[in-house]
Amino acid sequence: MKFLYVCVMIGLGAISCQSVPHENNSNTEETSVVTEGSTTIHVDIHPSLRENPLAAQLQPVFSEYFTNMNQNIFGGDLHHYQTNWMLDFPEMPLHELKLAFGDSVFVKYPPQILAVYTEKGDTLAKVTFASEVKEMVVTLATYNFGVVEYIGELKLQSPVYLHTRKWNQEKVGNITYYFPKTHDFSHDTAKCMQDFNTELAVLFDSSAIDFRYMVCDSGLEIDRLMGFDYKFSMFQMNNEQCGLADHGNKIIYGGNGSEFYPHELVHFFIAEKFPNSHAWFDEGFATYLGGSRGKPLDWHLSVTHDYLARHHYPDLTDPFSLPYQLADTTGTMYALGGLITKLAYEKNGMDSLGTLLSAGNTNADFYAGITEVFGVEKEDLNAFLYSHIQTYSREFEAWGVD
Question: pTM value?
Answer without folding.
Answer: 0.86
